[in-house]
Amino acid sequence: MNAQEVIELEQSHVLGVYGRAPFVLERGEGSTLYDTEGRAYLDCVAGIAVNALGYHDAGVTQALQAAAATGMLHVSNLYHTAPHARLAALLCESSFADKVHFCNSGAEANEGAFKFARRYGRAHGGEDKVEILAFTNAFHGRTMGALAATPRPKYQDPFKPLMPGVRFAGFNDLASARAQMDDRICAIIVEPIQGEGGVHVATPEFLAGLRRLADEFNALLIYDEVQCGVGRTGSLWAHQGYGDGKDRDAFAPDILTAAKPLAAGLPIGAILMRQRVAEAIHKGDHGSTFAGGPLVTSVAHHVVTRIAQPEFLAAVQAKGKLLHDLLAEINSPHIVEIRGKGLMVGVELDIEAADIVNRGYAEGLILVNAGPNVLRLVPPLVITTAEIHDVVARLTRILHAL
Ligand SMILES: *Cc1c(COP(=O)(O)O)cnc(C)c1O
């Protein structure tokens, strides 16, 4: 099949909820993807912040092969396996958490977090303590509960009624969050760095303020680190980049959801939680057939071990700074603002970001937007400094040719 035949076959048989780029990808190496015509693309999307270790990583391949060699791709959660136990322990050691529950995606992690928060709220605050506070420009997923906390009419309206009991306040607006709080709120959910909503970084005052508000109203603080977690911002968990290390508790959540990069491209989600949350959840309260199987948890253990190394995280910080600095040197009247942290960068434009994404393909550059006017750069965390120079040179050519 040539590229055109593949594209036509997909268009005939695959539900059209995605607009797809006009080429067919065939293989990847490092931070480069190749299409069926042999064209190379520098990848600044990484499967939407999933392929943190890039393509064809030797360690990932080895972890996959070793796990596959046991013959057990899947084992039910009715049985114990070592990879499942080891990954849970590693995630607890590397975070605020005491317990972990696995699932299969970001949306599913947030659904689970909402269920756990309602269970906890009822146990500690009575029947009515079931409502959730979320924020403007948030993205928490496409399932009915997660969608209810994702305030975008285009995503929500065709699918109403959604899960009731969600309120909204302004992102980075502590006063508006306080105005929404009362004893019926069981949880506040926030992305420390908003991804889909346009790459907006929470201020330290905002996160610390939400922590205090949650405590004051006996509610749980949930961080959705599905996109910004696992090294993306230069610390293993994005919120660990806040404060000076001594005031860790001022920025720590009660629940954290992770997914995208956690297993190098295999589907996984995780809900990390404190002991007091875990104590409110009982046998039979929640579950998933596929979640936490030995293959996916073996690969995730490799990913987290690699990314948690201080040298790896320091390199993400340095490369993130380089990317940010080089972008800031582009002399284009179309750049309104450059935002982000580490290798999660948003470039706000005064034109449609989709136009730049399309022009990128001809320059051998894979880009994605985050909302109509923001170009989002979330390359593999293993991207080299030479490749970062190359990315910015190509983007500069595109902007200057407008
Ligand atoms: C992508 C994303 C989700 C949804 O994850 P899926 O795996 O697509 O369900 C939730 N929250 C954030 C912050 C995300 O970026």
How would you explain this protein's 3D organization?
The chain has 2 domains: 3-57 and 310-401, Aspartate Aminotransferase, domain 1 (Alpha-Beta Complex); 70-307, Aspartate Aminotransferase, domain 2, CATH 3.40.640.10. The chain is 38% helix and 18% strand. It has helices spanning 3-13, 46-49, 58-69, 82-93, 106-125, 144-148, 153-156, 174-180, 204-216, 275-278, 294-307, 310-329, 353-362, 385-400, and strands at 25-29, 32-35, 40-43, 99-103, 131-135, 166-169, 185-190, 193-194, 200-201, 220-224, 255-258, 269-273, 335-341, 344-349, 365-366, 368-369, 374-377. Strands 4-12-11-10-7-5-6 form a 7-stranded mixed β-sheet, sandwiched between helices. Helix 12 (310-329) runs parallel beside helix 14. It is globular. The mean pLDDT is 97. It binds pyridoxal-5'-phosphate (PLP). Residues 105-107, 110, 139-141, 191, 195-196, 224, 226-227, 259-260 line the site of pyridoxal-5'-phosphate.
